[in-house]
Design a protein that fits this description.
Order of helices and strands: HEHEEHEHHE
Structural class: alpha+beta
Helix content: 25-40%
CATH superfamily: Transposase IS200-like
Number of strands: 5
Radius of gyration: 15 Å
Shape: globular
Strand content: 15-25%
CATH topology: Alpha-Beta Plaits
CATH class: Alpha Beta
Length: 151
């Protein structure tokens, strides 16, 4: 791990109860989730409740080469630990079924803490519209790899 990675991690502050918009990519931006077989398996793994015992997943979308989510951080969690558990566990389980994929997730993640005045549902709608903006589908209802607690 390089010095830049250490500085990024040292500068990240986790606040219990805070809602974060999180994004991370696949390794080398490989389009691991282009096929139904891998995307549906990963979507089920991401949504699995065992990842969200400490923190809460409010909305998410799995794209062919990245993931976006709205995560509300729990009291006994840090954002780095939460995302690390999610990426590590889902990667290990997917590779049991599809070992040919190699490395699943790229290093690190991007996060932005939402401000209190931001409309949470509008941010969730923005996430859900990613497949439409990317030209994968014409309507968000046609894309199966997303969810939100409001749906």
């Amino acid at each position: 791990m390089g010095h830049a990675s250490i500085k990024l991690r040292q500068g990240r502050h986790s606040i219990a109860g805070q809602i974060y918009l999180v994004t991370f990519t696949t390794a080398a931006r490989n389009r691991h989730f282009e096929t139904w077989e891998t995307a549906s398996l990963m979507a089920g793994l991401i949504a699995g409740s065992e990842h969200w015992k400490r923190s809460r997943l409010l909305a998410w979308v799995l794209m062919p080469d990245h993931w976006h989510g709205l995560v509300q951080l729990g009291d006994a969690d840090t954002l780095s630990a939460c995302i690390g558990r999610l990426k590590g566990s889902t990667s290990r389980r997917l590779k049991l079924v599809h070992p040919q994929l190699g490395r699943i997730w790229g290093p690190g993640f991007h996060d932005r803490a939402l401000r209190e005045e931001e409309d949470l549902r509008a941010v969730a709608r923005y996430l859900a519209m990613n497949p439409v903006r990317a030209g994968l589908v014409e309507r968000v209802g046609d894309y199966p790899y997303w969810d939100a607690i409001w749906v």
